[in-house]
Amino acid sequence: MAIGERILMGPGPANVYPEVTAALGRPVLGHLDPEFLSLLEETCDRLRAVFRTSNRLTFPVSGTGSAGMEAALVNTVSSGDVVVVGVNGLFGERMCEIAGRLGAQVVKVEAPWGEPLDPAAVLSAHPAPSVIALVHAETSTGV
């Protein structure tokens, strides 16, 4: 299959830098290769710095944004927890579904799709939520 060059202008997938394309042509490192383990440890160290944690179980997740969202909620929400979720698009709705499947009491703070959420409404939605969950870039609506 011969695919010509494309310019991708959506929220994802995105065009890949030529350096990344070249790297994809190199031999694959096994998950126990010393070079891979060194790179993984460096990546984990940097993630711990970004998230200001010393937790040794901090590691990257290879998956879609929804996989990352589910991983975050599964690791922070317990059955019966109150979870305030900002909803102004598809991915906010998805967070509600995930939190609900985990047994959380979901409190939705809604804005019309494509409109920003009111921070005061989020903060006043519940006096003591266990988690406040917001989508940083709601690609379904461009907010």
Largest sheet, order of strands side by side?
Answer: 2-1-3
Tally of separate helices = 5
Largest sheet properties? 3 strands, parallel
Order of helices and strands: HHHEHEHE
Structure in words:
By secondary structure, the protein is an alpha/beta fold. 36% of the residues lie in helices and 10% in strands. The chain folds into two domains: 33 residues; 69 residues. Strands 2-1-3 form a three-stranded parallel sheet, with helices on one face. Strand 1, helix 4 and strand 2 form a beta-alpha-beta unit. Helix 3 packs parallel to helix 4. The longest helix has 17 residues.
List key phrases describing it:
single chain; 143 residues; alpha/beta; three-stranded parallel sheet; 10% strand
What are the SSEs and their pairings?
Layout: H1 18-24, H2 34-50, H3 65-74, E1 82-87, H4 90-101, E2 105-110, H5 119-124, E3 131-133
Helix pairs in contact: 3-4
